Amino acid sequence: MTVRTDEAGADAGFDPWSPAFVADPYPVYARLRERGRALYYEPSRQWLVPHHEDVHALLRDRRLGRTYLHRFTHEEFGREAPPAAHEPFHVLNGNGLLDLEAPDHTRIRRLVSKAFTPRTVRELGPVVERLARELVDGLVADGGGDLLARVAEPLPVAVIAEMLGVPESDRHLLRPWSAAICGMFELNPDEATARAAVTASVEFSAYLRELIAARRRDPGEDLISALIAAYDEGERLSEQEMISTCVLLLNAGHEATVNTTANGWWTLLRHPEQLAALRADHALLPTAIEELLRYDTPLQMFERWVLDDIEIGGTLVPRGSEIALLFGSANRDPARFADPDTLDLARADNPHVTFGAGIHYCLGAPLARVELTASFGELLRRAPGLRLVGEPEWKPGYVIRGVRELLVEV
């Protein structure tokens, strides 16, 4: 067993800051899978893991963690503490489900999961369908426009805001705050990105504190009121944990849906035979949604810290290392998927890792599927002649990957 320190990742062409790579990372993923199971990448000081079997297993491996601070200090783990000026972001992010480990993760997830039971999601269905119908009607009435801004973005933001009880007049604030905070999830974010994330963290937190205070005075049927009630009944949930949970639900609860919608339609419009089959038979929609989630996943990478030495395919990855689980590569792994580079909307055997696995499996996955089914279904019904106007430009982010806009005609 050896520690590899070669540049296999870069030699294969992995370059998350390259616009060409971001636009189409899949040929590079194929080369990474050929070269090994754990490949060191010096620019981000991470071990790249490109195979489906390994990604799926490591998502469940308790020797890895989204944080290490439940077991080690920064110094013990061989890492520098983040700059003091970035503290508002790290306090906000560090108290959310995504970056917590047991027992705190278990406690908070148990509370929040009550808002995502199958029954709750089913009850949200008519609301989601109504919102999707209204948005698509507006796009159709105008003869087209930016599908990203007109349908993909507003639908999941409205749904999460409805769940949290955010007044409609304030919802325009949410997406910019979310985008600024999510900038910190990219690889090696620069200081300007960090400053924007800190500002958004401060503003978003202040807004939610006011909203929580208002719900204490006048409870409603929303999730914030439910979390307050749980707190008042003795559940250990601090106000900071409430705030961080709400921010995470907005960020994680809409980023995947936004980018799957836009990326998915970009994919469909480049595969006219598959799109024609879907238009002819809307019963294909459930498997089509899963295939679009697999074929071009919105979350390309999920990072984990190595809490105890671990071996991956004969390579020792020591404690203190960071592992980059390449979801996009895992979802195109020929060892798990037949003809993985072929879009097959009828694909039945489709264990993609787009929503993760293990204790950090996406809590909102059932709701995301409802939203995607509603928006794709409405566009198929109301805009059967939908067509592309020009090739879209990709946003610079790689970890959360999506287009800047998707201009269409109806």
Key terms:
three-stranded antiparallel β-sheet; 50% helix; single chain; alpha+beta; 410 residues; 17 helices
Secondary-structure map:
Blueprint: H1 8-11, H2 19-23, H3 26-35, E1 39-41, E2 46-49, H4 52-58, E3 64-65, H5 87-94, H6 104-112, H7 118-141, E4 144-146, H8 147-152, H9 154-164, H10 174-182, H11 191-217, H12 223-232, H13 239-269, H14 272-280, H15 285-295, E5 301-306, E6 310-312, E7 315-317, E8 322-326, H16 327-330, H17 365-382, E9 387-388, E10 407-409
Parallel strand pairs: 2-8
Antiparallel strand pairs: 1-2, 3-5, 4-10, 5-8, 6-7, 9-10
Helix pairs in contact: 5-11, 5-13, 7-9, 7-17, 9-13, 10-11, 11-13, 13-17
Give me the strand/helix succession: HHHEEHEHHHEHHHHHHHHEEEEHHEE
Shape: globular
The average pLDDT is 93
In percent, how helical is the residue content? Answer: 40-55%
Low-confidence stretches: 1-5
Structural class: alpha+beta
What fraction strand?
5-15%
Short description:
Helices cover 50% and strands 8% of the residues.
Plain-language structure description:
The structure is a single chain. With 410 residues, the protein is an alpha+beta fold. 50% of the residues lie in helices and 8% in strands. It is built from 17 helices and 10 strands. The chain has helices at residues 8-11, 19-23, 26-35, 52-58, 87-94, 104-112, 118-141, 147-152, 154-164, 174-182, 191-217, 223-232, 239-269, 272-280, 285-295, 327-330, 365-382; strands at 39-41, 46-49, 64-65, 144-146, 301-306, 310-312, 315-317, 322-326, 387-388, 407-409. The strands form 3 sheets. Strands 1-2-8-5-3 form a 5-stranded mixed beta sheet, sandwiched between helices. The chain has a 3-stranded antiparallel beta sheet with strand order 4-10-9. β6 (310-312) and β7 (315-317) form a beta hairpin. α7 (118-141) crosses α9 (154-164) and α13 packs parallel to α17 (365-382). The chain starts with 7 loop residues before the first helix and ends with a strand. Residues 1-5 have low confidence and may be disordered.
